[in-house]
Amino acid sequence: MARLVMKFGGTSVADIERIRNVARHVKREVGAGHEVAVIVSAMAGKTNELVAWCREASAVYDADEYDAVVASGEQVTSGLLAICLQAMGVNARSWQGWQLPVHTSDAHGSARILDINGKALIERFRQDREVAVIAGFQGVHKDTNRITTLGRGGSDTSAVAVAAAIQADRCDIYTDVDGIYTSDPRVVPRARRLEKIAFEEMLEYASLGAKVMQVRSVELGMVHNVRIFVRSSFDRPEDIDPHGTPPGTLICNEEDIVEQQVVTGIAFSKDEAQISIRRVQDKPGVAAAIFGPLAEANINVDMIVQNVSADGATTDLTFTVPAADYDRATGVLAKAKDKIGYERLDGANDIAKVSVIGIGMRSHAGVAAKAFRALAERGINIRAITTSEIKFSVLIDAAYTELAVRTLHSLYDLDTVRHS
Amino acid sequence: MARLVMKFGGTSVADIERIRNVARHVKREVGAGHEVAVIVSAMAGKTNELVAWCREASAVYDADEYDAVVASGEQVTSGLLAICLQAMGVNARSWQGWQLPVHTSDAHGSARILDINGKALIERFRQDREVAVIAGFQGVHKDTNRITTLGRGGSDTSAVAVAAAIQADRCDIYTDVDGIYTSDPRVVPRARRLEKIAFEEMLEYASLGAKVMQVRSVELGMVHNVRIFVRSSFDRPEDIDPHGTPPGTLICNEEDIVEQQVVTGIAFSKDEAQISIRRVQDKPGVAAAIFGPLAEANINVDMIVQNVSADGATTDLTFTVPAADYDRATGVLAKAKDKIGYERLDGANDIAKVSVIGIGMRSHAGVAAKAFRALAERGINIRAITTSEIKFSVLIDAAYTELAVRTLHSLYDLDTVRHS
């Protein structure tokens, strides 16, 4: 017997038929003798509808009221899943954030979970074998007693936090992919599913826009040492042996990965634009003068590269923004030219960022150098480079994305070999 | 300065534009210096959608979970109205049933309000001139901490209960009619709006299917002596003088009505079917044998007439059911013929019930006799009669409904005379 958290996202609960399918997944685990808490998102599309209403009501809306409105989506799903489970003979009840309670900070719209009381759930597991169906994404602020939400994708965080609170043996994240891959299989046909990935690596994946899990949920799992298992919600519940090892990827501590590879995967994002500010004054405050106006214009700046000044007075500064924001960003910077003080702007809006991730880089030298050489051999020009302890990223022309990703995937021995 | 409760139903909050219109109504009262609590229903259609999902999830669903699902509709409206009010510069916040709290019984799906704590609202009126936007229809059970709902139309009850809790000077029910009429103006063009109506009379109206207010909300108003004012939500907020007397009908104590008329109004319902059981055994338990199976088949029996037995052994028993249930009802009774013991069934499914209501009947004799005579003069056959202290009802052929209603309306001097 194990204690499990099962989390299902919006597309898995998009209508009653799918909610019933989720109930079958839950019943399978209960039938195998497990104690189960389920975390559900709002039915697909519902949160968007609710957010749109808030915006229609007022361009600038009160985050307290926004939370009261949007939290209703998860409330509905939790009740419906409890009904479906009961109809299958599984003892179940729904829990709202304020009922459990899930105490959060008062940062409405993007609150942080402070503590969850798991006692009631554990008691009910033991006494009544009752499945807890918990509305994800929401909590309550202790002092004000008002509903809070955790920000988009917050149900992942709810799931991991509940898993920590009830000391679950595993937190299963059911999603539309059956795990974490070494790269996007649509681009790299030889990409393979990772059996295990370390929290730190998964954090990089999540930050790089692989939308499998919310960044904060991975952080939380790392802090509380929750074994997170990413698996497919599309598998037929009947086909799964609850005692076997289903397909999926376990996100776990570095120590739990016996054969750690140097590189775990290749991530990439297209639709990036690169902006270079030439001969900008190399003095304190200049970064603020550049990125302040961009932030005010709600333009998300990603990778920033600043080289050491060659002449001691000026330097070149390069960064990326979403391609869709390229024109706006250059406009903002042109307007602020006098204030910033630079010679000219260069840029391109057909750029890709390719990243190589692997915790093994910490202890292996020359991992990046190997990549630069391989890309050069293919005639791929590297526009900029950034590195961190367990990953490095290069900016290249978007046209070379697939070639670069496949080249690196082979280079680091990530290709499937079993079926070749 | 007065303390007001304002209640808006589903059609008044069907979309953001209408919710904004509601906000304008509220702002008008706040601008006049009043302290305001608003009770809102779910946006039109939402409750039906949520109920349909529950039914799709399971034919027999848990009422606890049903409540968690359907209560979300009012939650959404309360947040959206608070946003609209804030956008107009009116200080406002939403309250869910569990936040106030509105404590109810644990009869999920049709809970009764036990108590409401109005202290927090009154404090906030005084300190911050804050409008309370309260989700109607919902509450919470004290011991289980679970969401409850009050049954369809329950927002009226929420409004009256909140009005009692905060000792409101008036409880305004905004609806799609501008008050209570002496009869349905579509049938009786000369029907006129009543300025005042006694609680007891309004209870009869509500029971007879005039869908302006839920029966229980009227009962609650009577018990707690809440002045309920039925008025139109379609009036443009700008056209209303908050210090004047708007069009509408005040539901109040009998004593507050100076010139009480003998008859207040004529109600009617078509789509009734009449079933007569001929020569049924006149013995204890026979009523249970008849109405038990009908209740089990979910057939709503309305008017029941049983005459004193003429031969001491058998009697005729007549009652009405909705016309749509006529075939099912006769089927049920035919099946139970041996158990009940009767000679034959008679019936008709094109029947109307016409009712004459007036608290003055208590002290005036011959009110009904006058009606029977007038109907006879018009050649309208009365099939059955029931009476109570302040109303009497007759069953007639549906074809004569309009004639009968208009005849009675004139008979009791209810016709508008001002404009004739």
Describe the structure.
- The structure is a homodimer of 420-residue chains.
- Helices cover 33% and strands 26% of the residues of chain A.
- The radius of gyration of chain A is 24 Å and the shape is globular.
- Chain A has 2 domains: 252 residues, 3-Layer(aba) Sandwich (Carbamate kinase); 147 residues, VC0802-like (2-Layer Sandwich), CATH 3.30.2130.10.
- Chain A has an 8-stranded mixed sheet with strand order 3-6-2-1-9-11-12-10, sandwiched between helices. Chain A has a 6-stranded antiparallel sheet with strand order 14-15-13-16-18-17. A 4-stranded mixed sheet of chain A has the order 5-4-7-8.
- At the A-B interface, helix 1, helix 2, helix 3 and helix 4 of A face helix 1, helix 2, helix 3 and helix 4 of B.
Distinctive features:
homodimer; 420 residues; alpha/beta; Carbamate kinase; VC0802-like; 2 domains; 8-stranded mixed beta sheet; 6-stranded antiparallel beta sheet; 13 helices; 18 strands; 26% strand; globular
